[in-house]
Amino acid sequence: MKKLLCILLIFLSFGVTAQRKFPIDSLSSQINLYANKMESPMLFVHFDKNVYTNNESIWFTAYLVNYTDAGLYHTLSLALMRDADRAVVMEDRFVMGKGACFGNTVIPDTVAPGNYTFLVTTSRLVNGKPEMVFAQPVTIKTQSEPVFTASLNPLDTSANAAEQKVMLLVGVPDPDPDPDKQTPPPQIGFRYFVGSSAHPLMKGEAKADRQYIFTIPSHLLVPGNNLLHVQLSYKGETRDISMALPARPGPATVHFFPEGGNLVNGLPCTVGLEVRTAAGAPLGASEFLLDGEKVIDTLTTNSFGLGRFTLTPKPGHNYSLKLYNANKKDTSYLLPQPLTAGPTLSVNDAVVNDTVTVTIKDNQQEKLYLTGHNYREVFFTKPVNMTTGVKNLALAISDLPKGLAELTLTDSLGRPFAERLFFAHYDKREPLMVTTDKDEYTTRQKVNVKIKMDANMPNSALVSVACVQENRISLNKKNDIESYFYLKHDLGELPVRESYFGAGDKKYLEDILLIKGWSRYTWMDMLKAMPDDTIKQNSYLSFGGDVYWIADRPRSFKGEWLGEPIKHSVDIVNLAQPLNITTTTKTGAFTLADSNLLTLPGKWVNLLVIGKDPKDYRTIIKDPYVSFDKALASRAIPEDHETRPPENSSYLEIPENEHAHHLKEVRINGNGDDGLYGMNACGDYVCRFNILNCPNHPHEPDNKPPVKGQYYYTPANLLAGNKTQYLGCVANAGKFKGVYYAQEFYPVDYDKESSSLADYVSTVYWNYRLKVSSLRDTGLSFYTSDITGRFKIVVQGITGKEGVTYGEKTFNVVKGK
Question: Rounded to two decimals, what is the model's pTM?
């Protein structure tokens, strides 16, 4: 009976496989089916920088590319995830329109310094999941005077020792310089884990007044999972420090990538080579290529761990690779076994302009088909009769879009023999030329900038422009729209480089295309695509809530009491938009339209029940993004972008000459309003330049609450020189964070406005919807701040629904007289 069942399963499996093979003339429709299954727009977000401080504004522009209907996307979700434990520490929503979103927000004081990731998506769900997610790693540093210091110091960290000892040193400055009057150091609590937060090898909690010694069994540690992470908290301040502990060395990993997919006996083949350490880091090394015990070639891999060699395998031979000066023990890595028969596919160059030259070799006579496609569209299919051992083809690819494409060699049933990735129209970049009137400026000096697209690309573009302190853009966490759109979105994370499309980058791309291959698409998955796979159920995250009657609270009730369900519908209104009224059901339930959620960044939506006495009602808001962002973070895998972990808390402090001295979080009373850093209860404030809710100075110590009836500048009317009357603050218990719409960046004009206070602003300019073209220069100007050093202008954006552009320029700032 068991044998019969086994035979039946084999028969069924063969039948299903056979049904999914496609004749070459129907392959195009199958790829279109697969494209519909995989179809989704690409989301990219341009953040002004990737190193921030607490209480600092974040400026960003989100672009949708390759979308079908911009009207489907109306809300952008921004969540900040702490990498150490994937906890969501901040979340905001923003208005989207016409395939773009412009926004700004502020990192609150409650977010501890450390490494984080912004997870960005839209409110649109497909089959219950976010349609697209963009991740931007960032570092958050502090500019406040530290309450305490902490560092990890090795005592005995030999990988060969049975135990490893690490000393944690903590210090709290005593305000009294007299040693006789100083108090004993306080106990500072901390948590720690060894390994990773998701799968810790050991973890615990403890306290220390001056020092604490960790004793860690060495046998627990393995390369890549050997981190000691400590999180300390004292007086509301949190610091994270880490140390990579020595682990017993493990062998490097070596992966081979024969061009086309397979080695074939008797046919020469270029083989891509990737070498990594046991911890997964790229390894530049030297290698011997062996035929049995005989060395037949000496190889090297570059700093990215990438290399290549050519091999013509012979029947009955065994080929291997041996590293030297990398592993303590000689370790052999066997090459994949060659096929006895079949074709190979190679290209002279994989990074090409309008023509790709292909070589097909075969050790048998057969009819093959060469298909050019990008897993979304078939561009050509050519029959290839292998009556001779070699066929050379020069293929014109003028009809292909710029970017990644694939050559697939199949039989008449669509069964693949070989594949090769290439990049089409490498020369058709749409670069931006960014120039400044000088290469060096003094502090608070005007900078004049001109932006123009390449004359060979007669396109206009909508771009965002950021000018920021250069050390606020970490190379390890840098993203640009060009490399993301053409490479990273499909290939995944790439080795860190300053650029991917600049001068000298072509050789690097050749190695990547040989070794990386496709990440999002595979031929076999394409063949398995079924019509049911294209059925998508779309839904949206939306705010809702309930209204309760609280006028008659029972005297005998103890604990939290929400109120009683209402017995008739009521109307509720957003105080900022009194004309938009929402009517509840008879039991008090309601769903809010997007138009009832809009507010300025950092401000609350205040809902009020329309009735004789609104205080008789309680409004409970159901925010769908809380659980949504938590689930999104739980599935995220933070990338390790640090070259070495921060072992000292000072690593996350901004240098003295780059920031003002910020006060700790305090309450300031004035004019009858109770606020934070000069804010009133509604979060309104006036900065040193008399600007209401100035986004450049959100939490400065000299901010003041606005006075009802007084007139102030706002970022929106500042350039016009007009002032707006402040109508006062109306606070309400039914408040929540809504959906923010764009706020203008305020560029300081030091010729018109000045202050004796130092203005340490690291983002000196931001513009989120600047139109540029190849027909004329687009000019803009701004002023440097009081920070000296290198600054970088980054310009990037879209040239339509299916094109992107990028450019940058650096200049220096020195101290003025």
Answer: 0.86
